[in-house]
């Protein structure tokens, strides 16, 4: 009996074997990799991954699909976690690990931000997402796609848009074009030097009214002299500031606050 895709889980099952082959070629998984797949669904990607690795961790929220994976022909090579990925404790995995998945479009950003907390344990992440989301993830400053998501992720990861995936590669076909992104955490020392809470506040306030000058959006959050010391004109807008510059502002603000 064919599994009916469930809208509440944002299910669109990838069926094009050439896309799956290309993804495996980009990932180059090794037999002993600790690899976790988010949302294995009907197992299209799972099948290809199990050709390459000795064992695979999978996270599946759909009870029926999780049961099929637990009792199917690959059961001895799978550890199935039947849970919402947003509630999954990634610390239970043997680190360092790799993450891959066709992420549900309706919760893709929350998943990406959740995984930020585990970047120290991650080798890399390969995700299929809506192309417009990936365009925002990899966008450069001074472009229309550049925003809070771009800055928050680019501060912590090297980002690569690998290739696009048209709707006809899925069952049922989504109404959007998809794409594959590779996310490789930046060096631990570089990530640890970011005062995360302050950084997040500096970025979110800057983009809260993206057409306004930073003099207005940062009022009461970033003192003028901090922005100036970082070489940022207060007449600039958030979309003109690189991720590295936002990090610099947060670091200077952290030092200034500690001394105050």
From TrEMBL:
SUPFAM superfamilies: S-adenosyl-L-methionine-dependent methyltransferases. It is found in: Cytoplasm. One of its GO terms (cellular component) is cytosol. S-adenosyl-L-methionine binds at residues 12, 14, 39, 60, 84, 102. Its EC number is 2.1.1.182. InterPro entries: KsgA/Erm, rRNA_Ade_diMease-like_C, rRNA_Ade_Mease_Trfase_CS, rRNA_Ade_methylase_Trfase_N, rRNA_adenine_dimethylase, SAM-dependent_MTases_sf. One of its GO terms (molecular function) is 16S rRNA (adenine(1518)-N(6)/adenine(1519)-N(6))-dimethyltransferase activity. It catalyses: adenosine(1518)/adenosine(1519) in 16S rRNA + 4 S-adenosyl-L-methionine = N(6)-dimethyladenosine(1518)/N(6)-dimethyladenosine(1519) in 16S rRNA + 4 S-adenosyl-L-homocysteine + 4 H(+). It is an enzyme of class 2 (transferase). The keyword Thylakoid does not apply. Residues 19-187 form the Ribosomal RNA adenine methylase transferase N-terminal domain. Pfam families: RrnaAD (PF00398). The keyword Translocase does not apply. Keywords: Cytoplasm, Methyltransferase, RNA-binding, rRNA processing, S-adenosyl-L-methionine, Transferase. PANTHER family: DIMETHYLADENOSINE TRANSFERASE (PTHR11727), DIMETHYLADENOSINE TRANSFERASE-RELATED (PTHR11727:SF7). Specifically dimethylates two adjacent adenosines (A1518 and A1519) in the loop of a conserved hairpin near the 3'-end of 16S rRNA in the 30S particle. May play a critical role in biogenesis of 30S subunits. Belongs to the class I-like SAM-binding methyltransferase superfamily. rRNA adenine N(6)-methyltransferase family. RsmA subfamily. This is Ribosomal RNA small subunit methyltransferase A.
């Amino acid at each position: 009996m064919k599994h009916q895709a469930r809208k509440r889980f944002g299910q669109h099952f990838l069926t094009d074997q050439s896309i799956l082959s290309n993804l495996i070629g980009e990932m180059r998984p090794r037999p002993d990799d600790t690899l976790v797949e988010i949302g294995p669904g009907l197992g299209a990607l799972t099948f290809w991954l199990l050709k390459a690795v000795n064992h695979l961790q999978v996270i599946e929220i759909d009870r029926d699909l999780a049961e099929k994976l637990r009792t199917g022909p690959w059961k001895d090579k799978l550890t199935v976690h039947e849970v919402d990925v947003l509630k999954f404790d990634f610390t239970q995995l043997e680190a360092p690990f790799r993450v891959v998945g066709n992420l549900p479009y309706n919760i893709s950003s929350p998943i990406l931000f959740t995984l930020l907390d585990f970047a120290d344990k991650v080798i890399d992440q390969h995700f299929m997402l809506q192309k417009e989301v990936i365009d925002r993830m990899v966008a450069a400053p001074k472009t229309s796609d550049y925003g809070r998501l771009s800055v928050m992720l680019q501060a912590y990861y090297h980002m690569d848009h690998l290739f696009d995936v048209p709707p006809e590669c899925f069952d049922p076909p989504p109404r959007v074009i998809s794409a594959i992104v590779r996310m490789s955490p930046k060096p631990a020392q570089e990530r640890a030097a970011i005062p995360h809470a302050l950084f997040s506040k500096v970025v979110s306030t800057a983009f809260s009214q993206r057409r306004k000058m930073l003099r207005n959006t940062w009022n009461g959050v970033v003192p003028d002299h901090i922005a100036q010391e970082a070489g940022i004109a207060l007449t600039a807008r958030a979309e003109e500031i690189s991720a590295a510059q936002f990090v610099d502002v947060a670091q200077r603000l952290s030092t200034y606050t500690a001394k105050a």
